[in-house]
């Protein structure tokens, strides 16, 4: 494809947010700026960009992104977790998602990671098919544990606040 990928930069974040980053559901983009661009960021990101002559009908040149974090498993050691992979609908099927995911995998290997982990929504069959076509596999049935969460008042209670 005729596009490039590069790390997020703080000054470009407002434009990236126009893509519809799902992490904006709660705190909004000011927290996103702080969380992703502080001295110790909570996440990292890669953006896919096309030249001006290939911009969208709305004028966007930023056409996709991947958000990721580094994690650790007591079983396998270093891992990378891809929190989000998004490509604008008109650019899907053109290798953009594959290139973004490949870059996340490359960064993970460079950091000594042994796994790339991510989740897929139950209803998102096109994404599931894409990941399976890339050699990924569904560990839900064989992993032997459930994904659990604590949030809001329960999280405060757990922290004894």
Report the mean per-residue pLDDT as an integer: 82
Q: Assign a percent range to the helix content.
A: 25-40%
Uncertain segments are: 21-27
Query: How do the strands line up in the largest sheet?
Result: 1-2-3-4-5
Protein name: N-acetyltransferase domain-containing protein
Domain N-acetyltransferase: 16-161
Keywords: Acyltransferase, Transferase
Pfam family, one: Acetyltransf_1
Describe the 3D structure.
With 161 residues, this protein is an alpha+beta fold. The chain has one domain (4-158): Gcn5-related N-acetyltransferase (GNAT) (Aminopeptidase). It has helices spanning 13-17, 29-37, 96-110, 125-133, 152-158, and strands at residues 4-7, 44-49, 62-73, 77-87, 115-117. The longest helix is centred in the middle third of the chain and has 15 residues, at 96-110.
List the helices and strands and how they pair.
Blueprint: E1 4-7, H1 13-17, H2 29-37, E2 44-49, E3 62-73, E4 77-87, H3 96-110, E5 115-117, H4 125-133, H5 152-158
Parallel strand pairs: 4-5
Antiparallel strand pairs: 1-2, 2-3, 3-4
Please tag this protein with its features:
161 residues; alpha+beta; 5-stranded mixed sheet; Aminopeptidase; single chain; 5 helices
Question: Can you give me a brief rundown of this structure?
Answer:
This protein is an alpha+beta fold and 161 residues long. It has helices spanning 13-17, 29-37, 96-110, 125-133, 152-158, and strands at 4-7, 44-49, 62-73, 77-87, 115-117.
